[in-house]
Amino acid sequence: MNAGMNAEPTDRVRIDKWLWAARFFKTRSLAAQAVEGGRVHLNDQRVKPAKDLKVGDTLTISISELKWEIRVEVLSERRGPANVARQLYSESDESRARREAAVAERKDHAEPAFGRHGRPTKRDRRLIRRFTEE
Over the stretch 24-52, which tens digit does the pLDDT of each residue have? Predict the structure, then answer.
């Protein structure tokens, strides 16, 4: 067997590696920065990126205005497809509902200038001038 391959299932994995493997972050360095910055808590404690995870640990992950409260179900150091990554954890029902409500809220209240691109046209400038001078 190849010496570089990890044949036995691990019972501990670094938190930054697991977050990357579970597809919460695009790169492992982004996962490490999030942990270091306090946006990831392990069992309600702030930790460092090298902290080991165990099955059954709870994580609170904040990315922008979204917040996940999950329980670690499977440990993995390898990043796989999204459907496999979703099997690494289970999310609480309250967390899922809160996150879906935040996404729906953001869709309902889109940024007013979202469709605008570039500088105002001549017509836009006239309308702005007319609005501000009155």
Answer: 999 999 999 999 999 999 999 999 999 99
Query: Whole-angstrom Cα distance, residue 52 to residue 107?
Result: 37
Whether CATH 3.10.290.10 fits 1-96:
yes
Question: What residue segments make up the domains of the chain, in order of their start?
Answer: 1-96
Q: Which residues, 6+ apart, have CB-to-CB distance to 111 below 8 Å?
A: none
User: Residue 44 in contact with residue 29, Cβ under 8 Å?
Assistant: no
Buried b (16+ CB within 10 A) or exposed e, 10-31: eeebbbbbbbbbbebbeebeeb
Task: Determine the Cα–Cα distance for residues 56 and 90; give it in Å rounded to an integer.
Answer: 10
Query: Is the pTM here over 0.85, yes or no?
Result: no
Q: In whole angstroms, give the CA distance from residue 44 to residue 104.
A: 27
Q: Terminal CA-to-CA distance of the chain, rounded, Å?
A: 80
Cα gap 126→9, rounded to integer Å: 68
